[in-house]
Structures are given as C-alpha cells and as structure tokens.
Amino acid sequence: MAAEKMALAKAINASLRRALESDPKVLIMGEDVGKLGGVFRVTDGLHKDFGEDRVIDTPLAESGIVGTAIGLALRGYRPVVEIQFDGFVFPAYDQIVTQLAKMHARSLGKVKMPVVIRIPYGGGIGAVEHHSESPEALFAHVAGLKVVSPSNSADAYWMMQQAIQSDDPVIYFEPKRRYWDKGEVNTEAIPGPLHTARVVREGTDLTLAAYGPMVKLCQEVADAAAEEGRSLEVVDLRSISPVDFDTIQASVEKTRRLVVVHEAPVFLGSGAEIAARITERCFYHLEAPVLRVGGYHAPYPPARLEEEYLPDLDRVLDAVDRSLAY
After folding, report:
1. Is the dihedral of CA 318, 320, 324, 326 positive or negative?
2. In this protein, which residues make up the domain named Transketolase-like pyrimidine-binding (predicted)?
3. Which entry of 36, 151, 157, 160 is 20 to 30 Å from 230 by CA?
C-alpha cells in the first residue's frame, strides 16, 4: 500500500481500526468514545463499524474505567482506554500506579497487563482548566509502566499498533495541539521499535532533544538557527520511559551540547533525568552544561496566558545561545 497523507488524529483512528479488525480481544473504552467518536473525533466511526460491545461508552468515572480495563486484561483482553483530557487522569492514578503497573511484578511474571491508556495532553488549543497539562513525568517515574508520545502521523499510527501488541501497560500521550498536523503514513512499513529515539534532523553544533508536541517546534528552531549559520541536530525521543539514552549520547558526542525541550514544568521533569544521565555518560564530551526548556513550576494558566507559559521559538533559541556561549 502506498503512503497516505493523514492528520495525526486520523492516523490514530486508522491504527485503532486495524487493531480492532486484527484481534477480537482488542476493546476501546472511554467517555464519549463510542457514538460521539471522542471529543477530538479520534475514535470516529469505530462504534458504528464494530459495535457497542467493542467500542464502549463508559460512565464519567476514570478510576472505574481503568479498573475495568485491568479486569479485562486479566481475562485475556487488550483494552485501549481513553482518558478524555490529561487533567482527568488523576482519579485513576491510584489504579494505574498501584494495580496496573505492579500486577506483572506482583505475580512474578505470570500475569500480563496489555492495557493502553490514551491521554490527549499538552496545551496550545486555548482550553479551560485541567485540559492542557503535561503529567508524563508522574507516570515515567513509576516502574512497570511504559510511557510514549508520538510527534507525527506515521509514529502515531505505528506506535499505537506496537503499544496494543505490548504485554506491558503503555501510557500513550497524544499531543493534542498536533492532532490536525498532516504527515505521510505507510501502513506497511514499521518505522522502528517502540522505545527507540530517532534523529529527525542532522546537525553538528548542538543537539535539541524533544518528544510529542515539541519536536515540531525544535525543527522550527533548527531552521531559524540555520539562517544564522548554526547547525542543530534534532532528536525525537518518542519514548519517555524507557528512554533511548544511546541515541542521545551518540548525538551529544558529535555536537557536544544538549538542550532538552518539553511542555511540562522543568522542575523534576523528564528533561532532568535526561540531563543527569547524559552528563554522566558524556562528561568529557560536553562543552556546556545540559540545558532544559519547559513550562514553569506553576499551575497551568488560563488560555489567554498559555503562550507565555509554553516554550516557544525565542525561549528555545535563547537556550541555544546560552549553550553555544560557553
């Protein structure tokens, strides 16, 4: 099949459709995922084609949704759960971290937990409170959970396929501000393993590492820097837990500088772990300290102020300038 250009949201929809067609044990659950097709229409058409027994509208009860998914997984199903917005996941946090993440270890490896939890996350859409948060570090800290975030349509399609096929629970963060960005998707060519990073732009002077919504921004930063004669390499991390440190290390050994970018607050964010690990691994290669750009250590602001909160071109370029000044 030739590659098809599709929006990131449509790529996830196509991937879910393929999973439902391929495996009768795959189920989709969540608030408004059925008849409505989800608030972002990511599950549009699936209820009509696969029925209410496989695409299930649930009550507004996140803890109950995830708890039910755990029970279904124990019975051999592969549930894909949607948390409608990032800020709504916390009623289910107990189920996720004390049950879902620990079942495999608790059973000494006998019990598999093939549950995917889809979470639209991040800002940039002018939403109200609790609709624009980036809680990925909270889940990456929990042993037993895999945490990923695609940045483009091809990865959105294939990373969903791989997440559903995984016997471990996967938290699948969807960058909602990128839902409508279009890209080529080849549904016959897997782009790579689920937890590998990818160099999406070659460079020699500095490495920008990001995932999800910030990858596109970093590519724009690299374009802007090129106009000033600076060559920036961009690494799409793709996986937040586990992290592919080898790919980052190889890039940093070449460029000798690293700036990590994410929407989540910088304080104790994913960038902190990456900075620490790369400093340990690349101490004698680094020409500057690893710098981080992200949100502020404050509650996510009202929509009219979110552009001041979110990393933008100027803030990332400022970090690039500071790194190159050493």
Report:
1. positive
2. 6-181
3. 151
